[in-house]
Amino acid sequence: MIIVLKPGTSKEDCDRILDQIAATGLKPLYLPGTERTVLGAIGDERVLAGLHLEGNPHVETVTPILSPYKLVSRELHPHDTVVPLGPGARIGSDRFVVVAGPCAVESREQLDATAERVKEAGASVLRGGAFKPRTSPYSFQGLGRDGLALLSEVGRRRGLPVVTEVVDVSDLDAVVEHADMIQVGARNMQNFRLLQAVGQCPRPVLLKRGPAATVTDLLMAAEYVVAEGNPNVVLCERGIRTFETATRNTLDLSAVPFVKQRSHLPILVDPSHGTGIRDLVTPMALAAAACGADGLIVEVHENPEVALSDGKQSLFPEQFAALMAALRPFVEAGGRHL
Amino acid sequence: MIIVLKPGTSKEDCDRILDQIAATGLKPLYLPGTERTVLGAIGDERVLAGLHLEGNPHVETVTPILSPYKLVSRELHPHDTVVPLGPGARIGSDRFVVVAGPCAVESREQLDATAERVKEAGASVLRGGAFKPRTSPYSFQGLGRDGLALLSEVGRRRGLPVVTEVVDVSDLDAVVEHADMIQVGARNMQNFRLLQAVGQCPRPVLLKRGPAATVTDLLMAAEYVVAEGNPNVVLCERGIRTFETATRNTLDLSAVPFVKQRSHLPILVDPSHGTGIRDLVTPMALAAAACGADGLIVEVHENPEVALSDGKQSLFPEQFAALMAALRPFVEAGGRHL
Amino acid sequence: MIIVLKPGTSKEDCDRILDQIAATGLKPLYLPGTERTVLGAIGDERVLAGLHLEGNPHVETVTPILSPYKLVSRELHPHDTVVPLGPGARIGSDRFVVVAGPCAVESREQLDATAERVKEAGASVLRGGAFKPRTSPYSFQGLGRDGLALLSEVGRRRGLPVVTEVVDVSDLDAVVEHADMIQVGARNMQNFRLLQAVGQCPRPVLLKRGPAATVTDLLMAAEYVVAEGNPNVVLCERGIRTFETATRNTLDLSAVPFVKQRSHLPILVDPSHGTGIRDLVTPMALAAAACGADGLIVEVHENPEVALSDGKQSLFPEQFAALMAALRPFVEAGGRHL
Amino acid sequence: MIIVLKPGTSKEDCDRILDQIAATGLKPLYLPGTERTVLGAIGDERVLAGLHLEGNPHVETVTPILSPYKLVSRELHPHDTVVPLGPGARIGSDRFVVVAGPCAVESREQLDATAERVKEAGASVLRGGAFKPRTSPYSFQGLGRDGLALLSEVGRRRGLPVVTEVVDVSDLDAVVEHADMIQVGARNMQNFRLLQAVGQCPRPVLLKRGPAATVTDLLMAAEYVVAEGNPNVVLCERGIRTFETATRNTLDLSAVPFVKQRSHLPILVDPSHGTGIRDLVTPMALAAAACGADGLIVEVHENPEVALSDGKQSLFPEQFAALMAALRPFVEAGGRHL
Questions:
Q1: C209 and C305, same domain (yes or no)
Q2: Domain range enclosing B102
Q3: What is the rounded average pLDDT of the residues C122-146?
Q4: Is D281 at the interface with chain C, CB within 8 A?
Q5: E strands along C125-196, which residues?
Q6: What order do you get walking across the sheet with C27-32 strand by strand?
Q7: A56-72, pLDDT tens digit by residue?
Q8: Any idea what the CATH number is for the domain that residue B54 is in?
Q9: Partner of D92 for a Cys bridge, out of B68, B170, C48, D82, CB 3.0 to 4.6 A?
Q10: Are residues C159 and C298 in the same domain?
C-alpha cells in the first residue's frame, strides 16, 4: 500500500501510523518528500484492511501497489535509482556505463593486459570471474579467492571499480572485501538465500536474469534483495533459453523498456552471453543503447583464442575499441553520454 | 557449388558447363561479373562430383556452398540485394524504409485517414490486411477482395506503394493486381505451396518469420521463393514464441545481424507484433535501426481504441510521428537516412 | 450460448428461436435429446443479449460457453465424438487405434511391403505422405498425385483405410478421391483457408498440433473445421518446439488429458515426430496409451536405413510388431482394447 | 576413459596403473568385475594420451567415454543403480516407488493427517518442504528447522522415510540429521556448490531438473554430485518452461527413456509440478509408469483448499488413493510392482 499523508502531518502522527503498520506484520516504509510524506506498507496487503487507514484524519489517500513487486516498482518510487559504484562511476544516470573484461580471471598478466586495453577504450568498470559456475565439473572452475585478490589489485592499479560473481553465501565476505559490485549470476537468480545475503551487504548487486525467468521473475528476485535493505540493485538482461539454436541465448531486448517503465532500477545488457557469437556483440550493444539500457557488460579477452572459458563470444581488444567508437552516436541519440 | 571460371572463358564454353550441370538435375546459375564469370549449381551437391568440374580447363575453382540455403546466401551472392518497390521506394539501400498502416483495412475512411497521417510523418509504404488470419473463426476476418481494392485506391491517392498479406494461392492473382509487395504471414512461413506460388509472381515478397521458426528455417523459406525465380524477397523479424508472457512474442533482434552476415536479402523488423504492447514499439524500433535492420513495419491506426484487430499494439498517429522523429538520429548513427 | 428448452416445447417454437438466433448473425444449432432439446448459438455472444431469450416462455436456461472454442467443447457436447473411418475402423471408441506406415510413399514395393507388415502386426490404418512439406526446396518432396494413387491402391489391397496429408486447397479433390482421412500437418495447423476447405469435405480430418501452438490454438483450429460443417476431426499431439535439443520436438503428453477433459474430439499421439528418435518411440507410445490417447500414428518403414525422409525416427517392421505386443497390456489397463 | 584389463592382471599391476592415472590429475576409478577388472579415468581425457596405456601389457582396450557425463553414464557403468532409502525402500529396483506428501510442512496436524492417508494408500516415502523457495519474498517461506523436526518425527511415527529440500549449504547438516533423502530443487539444479556439498553427504540425493535445463544439463548436474563421492542420486523430471500456458510446466516424459538409455541412475516423475493442475496428475502419473520411470513424487494435502502453497496441484487424499489403485495395472504392465 502507498499511504499519502496530508500536508502538515507531524512526525509523531506519522510514527504512530508506522507503528500500526508494523504491528500487522507488514514492513513499514517512511518516504518523506518535499511536499508530502508518503508511507509504504509492504507485504500481504489484505491484512491492512483491518486498520481502516483511509479513515485516519492524517491520511489523504491509500492506494494498493498493483504489481507483485513492491519496493522495486515505479508505483512506489517513481524516480530512477542511481547506483553508486565508487568515485565517478554510477549506474542509472545520464552516463551510459560500459563494464568490460574477461569471462574469468586467469592470471595477473591476462587480467592486467585486458584491463589496460578496456580502460583505454573507455570502459569504466572491470569484470572478471573468480568463481565460475560451469556446466561440467571437469571444466575450469576459476581461481577462487586468488582470483578475487588479483581482480581487486588490477582494478586499483588501473583505476577501475570491479564486479565479480558470488556463487555461494560462504564466499560472500571475501567477495565484499575485494569487489565494488557483486554479481548474482543467471543460474542463481532464484537462489533466494543468496539474494537475501547480498541484500544485507554493503555493496551494489548486479542481478542477471535467469535463462527461464520472466521479467516479472527478475523483478521479484530484485525485490528479495531490496527487501533485505540493499537498495542498490542493477538488473541485467543476458538472454533467455528458447528453441533458437543459432545463438547461445535469445537476447530479449524488449525486457529493457518493459523494466524501465515498471521499475526504478537501472538495467544493463550483456550482449556476450545474450548471443554467444563475437560478431553479434557489437550490433546488439548498439541496439541495447537505442532501446534505453543504462549500460553494457561485455566480455573482452586479451587473446580470446586461448581463453579458458567463453572464448567464442569474447571480443579482441581492438574489436572492443571499435565497439566503443560505434556506440557513441547511438548513446548520444538516446540523450546520454559515454 | 560455386564454380569460378578462368578469365577469358568464352560464352560457348560457359554454356557447355551450364548444360552439364543441368543434365545432373541441379539448377544451373549464370552470374557474369566484370572480371570473372561465376556459375552456380544448386541442389544436392553430391551429384556434381561425377562431373569432375575441377578438372575442366576453363574452371578455376569449385567451392561448395556450406550453408543449407544457397541462392539467398552471401557465399554465392556477396552484395546486398535491393528490392524495388515502385518509384522511389527500395528496400535494402541506404534509405531506412518505414512501412506503416493499420492491421486490417476496415473502411475507406479509416484507411485513408491513417494513410494520410503515416505519409505526413514520413512512412514510405502503406500496410493493411484484407485477408486476416485469425485464431478464432468468430473474429473479424478482414474485408477480403473489397479490402484489396480499397488498399490500392488509397495507396494511389496518397502516393504510397502498398503491401498486404496473401493467405491462399487462390487469392494470389487478386493480390498481385492490387499490391506492390505481397506479404507471406508468420503462420504461412512454411506453407511451401504458397512460397512457390509467390516465387512465380511479378511482385516483391515480404516474408515474415514464423513463431517457431529458427533463422535458418526463415532463410530456407526464402530459398523456396528465390528458387522459383523471384529474387525480390524482404525478410521480416516479428518475434518468436517463448515462455515469456510479458510480451506477445519475444522480438529476436539478434536475428537481424545474424541474417545480414549470412544472406544478401534485406530484413525489416515488426516491433508491433514483436512486442504486442504499444509502449514498447518505439524503443524496439530504435533498437532495430541500431542493429542494422533495413526498415520497419509498424501498425498505426487512426483510432486504436476502436480497431477491429491488434488495437493494443497499434500506435496512435501522433505516437507514430513521434517515433519517426525519435528514429532519425539512430538511423543516421547507423549510416543511413530516413 | 447453450439454450436449454423446457420439456414439451414444440418444433415450431423451437424453429422460431433458431430463426431469431440466425437473424443476429450467430450460427444456430439444433441439438435434440431424449429428454430435452438444446439449442446453441455460436459466435460473438454479446449480440445475443438483445434477444432476451431468458425471458422466452419456452426457455429453461441460457448459459454462456466459457471456452473460446464452442462446437468442439464439452460444454456444448458432453459425449465423446467417435469418428468413422470406413468399415470397422472408428477413432474415439473403446478400441485403441494404431495408424502406421512410412513417412512418404516412395514406391509401390516400399509401400506394399510396409503395409503388409504393419497390418500383420495389428495396425488398422495406413499412413503415407504423397505431398511432403520439407524445410529445404532441395529435399525429396513426395510423389504427389502418383503417390496418392499408390496409397489408395495399396490400402485397398491390404484392407486398410488410408490417411495422407493435404498441403494445398488445390489438391484437396484428389486427396478426397484417394484417402479415407485427410491430414492437416503441423505447419498448416493455422492455414485457415485449408481448415475451412477440409471443413467442407466428406472425409474425417486428422489435425496435427503446430510446433508453436498451444492446446487452445489447436482446439480453435479444430473449431474452424467443425464450424464449416465437418464434425469428424481427430486431433493429434506430435510435440512442440522447445529449447530441448535431445529430441526433435518435446512431446507434450499432458495435452492429451487436457484436451479430453475440455473437448469431445478424439486425440492421437505421434511419438515418431514427437521424439525424432527411434528408440524413444515405443516408451512414448506406451505412455500415450496410459494417459488416455485414443490411438497412435507411428512411422514404420520396410527399411528405415534407405528411407527418403524421417529414417532416423522410423521403426523397423519387427520393432513395430514389438511395440504392438508391448502396447496391449497398457491399452487394457486403460480399459480399452487393441 | 574406460580401461579394460586383461584377465589375470594382479592387484599390484592394477594399482600401478591407477597411480599413473592419478598422477595426471584425472580421477582414477577401480571397478572390479567377475571376469575382468575395469578401470576408469575421469576428467579431461586428452591428458591421458601421454600415458600410452594402450601399450601397457596388462591393458586390453582403452575406450573414450563419448558422453560429456562420465560417472553417471551407462558406458562406464552398464547396470542400474539402486538407491537405498532405509529399510525396505529402494529406488531403481523392480518396485515402483511413490513419494507423496504436502508441498510444505505447515503443522504437525496437517503433516500427520496427510502422512497417515498417503501411507494407507500405498506411498512408501513421505515428502514435505521445510525450506520453501518462493518467487515472492512475501509468500510463505516454510517452517524452516521446526519443519524439519516435524517431518522426521512424523516420518518415524508413520514408518515412512522422508525427503525434503535443502536450499543452502548452511542448512545441510540439519537436513542430513532429519531427512532420509535430500532434495535439490529445480531452481538450484545448477547451484554447483550445493551439488558439491550434497555430493559429500551420507544421504541419497533427489535432483530435480531445472525449468531451463536440457536432459544433458541434468546429467551433468548429477555428475557433480557423484564426482564428489555420493553415488546415490535419483533424478526427477518435473517439467520444463515452454510457451504453453495451459499447464504450469511442460512435463517432458521423453526425458525418462532418454535418461534410462544413457545413464544408470534412477528417475522419478513429478506430475504435480509438471502440470500444475490437479486433474492432470493421475493421467500423467500413469504415463510416467508406462514410459519406464522408477517412481513418482506427488503432492497430496489433507485439505488442498487451505494449503499454504501449491494447493491447485495437490491431490485430495481420496484422489491419491484412486491414483494408487489406477496405477497398479500400468506398473505391472511395465514389469514392476507397487
A1: yes
A2: 83-333
A3: 94
A4: no
A5: 125-127, 162-165, 181-184
A6: C27-32, C37-42, C2-5, C59-63
A7: 999 998 888 888 999 99
A8: 3.30.70.1140
A9: D82
A10: yes
